[in-house]
Amino acid sequence: MGISLEKYILAVITANRSRIGGSTPIFYAEGENELQQIAFTLEKILDGVVHEITPDTLIIVKHS
Hints:
By secondary structure, the chain is of the alpha+beta class. It has one domain (7-63). Helices cover 23% and strands 38% of the residues. The chain has one helix and four strands; from the N terminus they run ββαββ. It has a four-stranded mixed sheet with strand order 2-1-4-3, covered by helices on one side. A hairpin with a 2-residue loop joins β3 and β4 (57-63). The longest helix has 15 residues, at 32-46. It is globular, with a radius of gyration of 12 Å. The protein starts with 6 loop residues before the first strand and ends with a strand.
């Protein structure tokens, strides 16, 4: 019996620089369209799932 990490945040995408910090990779967008485009691209590259935290902040989570 071992411990495994089943869900974890791969990236944060935001249009609000003042509210986000931490050690997870953070991508800053200039508006709604760029926010969605970055999230869509990273979702495919990282094989994760995008979740909306607030209208201007999204996270990509890996569900194992």
